[in-house]
Amino acid sequence: MSEQKRALYNLDRAELQTLLASWGEPTFRADQVWEWLYRHLVTDFEAMHNLPRALRARLAAHFTIEGARPRAERSSSDGYTRKWLLELADGEHVEAVLMEYERRRTACISVQVGCAFACAFCATGQMGLIRNLSAGEIVAQVLHIEREVRALEKTSGERALTNIVFMGMGEPLSNYANVLKAVRILNDEAGFRMGARRMTLSTVGLVPAIRRLAHEPLQVNLAISLHAPTDELRTSLVPINAQYPIRELMKAVRYYLEHTGRRVTFEYAMIAGVNDDESLAEALAQLLSGLLVHVNLIPLNPVPGSPWQGSDRRQVEAFAAVLRRHRLPVTVRVRRGIDIAAGCGQLYAPTGRQGRRIVPVRERTGTYVASRTTG
Ligand code: SAH
Q1: What's the total number of domains in the chain?
Q2: Residue 74 main-chain phi, psi, to 5 deg
Q3: Is the separation of the CB atoms in 109 and 166 below 8 Å?
Q4: Is residue 70 part of a domain?
Q5: Which of 164, 237, 267 gets mutated to test ligand 1 (max ligand atoms within 8 A of its CB)?
Q6: Which of 147-156, 258-267, 349-358 has the largest mean confidence?
Q7: Total-model pTM
Q8: Which atom of ligand 1 is nearest to the CA of 306?
Q9: Which CATH number covers residue 17?
Q10: How confident is the model at residue 80 (pLDDT cuts 50, 70, 90)?
């Protein structure tokens, strides 16, 4: 076989329809294949019983189905969290996590190998960006976890996952087209049927992409990694803030709110003695007051090489109390899977390569200019 096979998970339903039509197949064939892929989750063309043998062979000659091979798996002692190291076709790896709650089963999915944004407290940021994932590689992680859950529960038809968060390795809005395509594929009503409202994109705060997302005809949720209410502090934690400072970020959020009417979540990793003072909670409340938002406090998870500690419970509660006094809805994120490094900011996959970093540059005039890339 000289031609390189393509990953079938990279095609959305319309593309699959176009392909099969170009092969002279009747229109219902695409729906059949789609159901095998996204309802029955088969990984072998031979299992697609209702397709003619010749079509199965033709598909197998041009496409592969698997896009993420499990290389290691760990289960948390809390009994509710599992993490997989998944290998991609080119030998790079990503991590993906399953979190079980009383009424939810959430998959946390990676969108890039590494990440370019180098947030000071995040393990993935230490890798630099190796590459974007394709839509199919993003979809494949979800389907891998779904299969694992179904295998354990011995169910075959019904979807087991209830939510997907794009909060694993990488920055969803810097791999915009592939992430949105994956969302559309997973949302498709003839296939996996994950409600868009049950999927959340978390961003480091890429202003142009937030504005673009405001116009997507998809009800997907948006979470903003804020972590500090002032520019000086935020830039020290989230370097891209030098390029997209809080004022610009909040303008984009207001724009998003106006166009979508959907509540935006603000994530705030709480670092003892760094950003957890009640005066900062006051500043945060001022920043968010009157907006349709929700604040999610995340006591910092430990990351190798970082000197910081998560805020203790009392400080988290005191911080939350200030926000509540200002009538801001607040939740504290449940800490899960820390013993297997499956918590927020702990995902990391060994790679032999040095990733690229985006270094925001601020000109002497005080205006912010386009980023430079190093590494
Ligand atoms: N690139 C996206 C997704 C990142 S992970 C983003 O920046 O939003 C999801 C969340 O975990 C982000 O809010 C991120 O800032 C946060 N996070 C990173 N490292 C963390 C750590 N060590 N402890 C707690 N939260 C962390």
Answers
A1: 2
A2: -135, 145
A3: yes
A4: no
A5: 267
A6: 258-267
A7: 0.94
A8: 22
A9: 1.10.150.530
A10: very high
